[in-house]
Amino acid sequence: MPYTKKIPLKVKLLTLFFLFLINPGLITHHLHAHDVGNLEQSSLAELVDSTSPSVVTIAIKGTRKVQQNPFFDDPFFERFFGQPQPPREREFGGGGSGVIVDGIQGYIITNHHVIEKAEEIKVFLKDGGEYLAELIGSDPGTDIAVLKIDLSRTISQMSLGDSSLLRVGDFALAIGAPFGLSQTVTSGIISALGRPQMSSDGYGDFIQTDAAINPGNSGGALVDLQGQLIGINSAIYTRSGGNIGIGFAIPVNTVKNIMHQIIEFGSVKRGLLGVIISDINKDIAEQLGLEVETGALIQEVSPNSAAEEAGLLVGDVITSVNGEETETSSDLRNAIGLKRSGESVEIMILRENKAMTLSATLGELVAQEPVKADELNSLLAGAELADFIPEGKIKPQGVVILSVLPNSNAANARLKKGDIIWAVGNNSIANLDDFVAIIKDKNILVLRV
């Protein structure tokens, strides 16, 4: 047996120290020459140079109605004071960022909230080019909008990645124009995946990143180290209005789905299954004798819906859609809501603890067009209304308030966004048409919310 002498740890460390003094490059080479993609960790300049021309700055202009005292509407005011009535509209401006996804056709992705209610949209390229943009369509549910600019030449475009391949800890760059500044780049990592939407009526989930995202970054690019788009920056969690290291981006796979629908149809034709569902927990599973503690439990099936035609029943537990697990009711809502109406889906269910697979052709979730309450009755001025259709239902069951302007008549009446109006006085209402017929020309309104 050969003799081997153990070298003390102290001697080993001293040896490494002297080697470093003689040739520090032996260590620094291994520390700093590690490739990340095709780039060295010491600089991301080449990556920024290749991707940043595909990110644009967006500026918008528009007008909004200004709530004013009804006293000003009286012609006596003008006759007595000899002054014209104050203007009823006020100009507003804003902006954000966008990403060029087709440098030939001129298609640009941004957030819905960046261009919402804009009457004029301008796009500014990094090279100084300036264009008027056309809004092709937008989807409030996923906060995605598609713009188009007319091009006389081909411009840089961003290649689209695959957000299903992302892992927590992957490096990422956020590119945009925060606070009205020129294009800015920040770096960080993917902090979390599958974060839920911040609004109850949103679809899909978020990528969370600690790359600094600030106001003005909305609609900009979240890029991986291969130079591919992995998300559209959309929101931040903050109490001060600035970045605290918690930013959110819409996954690029969701962006691709919605973008193709908007380009093809001009809007999103969102799928509808027609069920009312709830989550399952341990207590519910025990009470119902279920052998699973995850899934979407069907509480109600709407008549003449895709679910009824597919043979789904109350008490069924939906466990997957097209092979993707649905552990919660939110998972099912996103799985169906991000698919196109008319699309067929394979639904795995448990019925009396026996697995079954059913096929359903999705109906269409009709987008509700908002109605300005000013046009219906001045007592409700400042509110926007629409039919209220509960999740999984086909017919409306009242009127929902979509928004309320501050200091408006509606705000003074203590109406709030999300309120559901189900009756006016003693008269029940089923939809917006019923509501309009009752409130027309009324001087006093008693709303049941």
UniProtKB/TrEMBL annotation:
Molecular function (Gene Ontology), one example: serine-type endopeptidase activity
Record carries keyword Hydrolase: yes
Record-linked Gene3D superfamilies: 2.30.42.10, 2.40.10.120
One of the GO BP terms on file: proteolysis
InterPro entries (UniProt xref): Chloro_Bact_Ser_Proteases, PDZ, PDZ_sf, Pept_S1C_Do, Peptidase_S1_PA, Peptidase_S1C
Ranges where the PDZ domain occurs: 262-353
Keyword set, alphabetical order: Hydrolase, Protease, Repeat, Serine protease, Signal
Any single Pfam family the record assigns to this protein: PDZ_2
Stated family: Belongs to the peptidase S1C family.
NCBIfam families: degP_htrA_DO
PANTHER family xref list: PEPTIDASE S12, PROTEASE DO-LIKE 8, CHLOROPLASTIC
Entry protein name: PDZ domain-containing protein
